[in-house]
Amino acid sequence: MKGVMTMLVRNCAGGVVFNNDKVLLLKNEKHEWVFPKGVMRTGDFPDEVAVKRVLVEAGVKARIISAAGRTNYEFYSISRQRPVANKIVWYIMTTDQETVTPNEVQNFSEGAFFTVEEAIEKVTYSQDKSLLMLSYQKYKELV
């Protein structure tokens, strides 16, 4: 089976961060509006990774109030020359912070808190739209 690429599977964790009725989105280098997330290394706890990525990518200190669910993405990585599957564990988070500082080193050009309606329009992936709707419903029940 020469030439068949094995898929790189990456376990990630991320946050759907709410400030009252607004949700945090970041714009990445592909001009996609996404939620902050990052790859888990061996020995990492997903909740800690999620909180850390929100802080690193958006400059927002947030705390977890609930699990939100999981999404999976598959794509072809040009840089790695192989298919990649991202398996992401998501957390619903809350913050009092209103300012977002997108991390340009991490290739985020913009970031802000948007109303859920605005966010649904902006979010690139349909999986993320579903995640946002479910997370918002749960958030409203919890807060």
Q: What's a concise summary of this model?
A:
By secondary structure, the protein is of the alpha+beta class. It has helices at residues 46-58, 116-122, 126-142, and strands at residues 8-19, 22-27, 33-34, 37-39, 63-77, 82-94, 110-115.
Would you give an account of this structure?
With 143 residues, this protein is an alpha+beta fold. It has a single domain, classed as Alpha-Beta Complex (Nucleoside Triphosphate Pyrophosphohydrolase). It is built from 3 helices and 7 strands. Strands 1, 2, 3, 4, 5, 6 and 7 form a 7-stranded mixed sheet that branches. The termini are far apart.
Key attributes of the depicted protein:
7 strands, globular, 3 helices, 143 residues, seven-stranded mixed β-sheet, alpha+beta, single chain, 26% helix, Nucleoside Triphosphate Pyrophosphohydrolase
Write the layout of secondary structure elements.
Layout: E1 8-19, E2 22-27, E3 33-34, E4 37-39, H1 46-58, E5 63-77, E6 82-94, E7 110-115, H2 116-122, H3 126-142
Parallel strand pairs: 1-6
Antiparallel strand pairs: 1-2, 1-4, 2-3, 2-7, 5-6
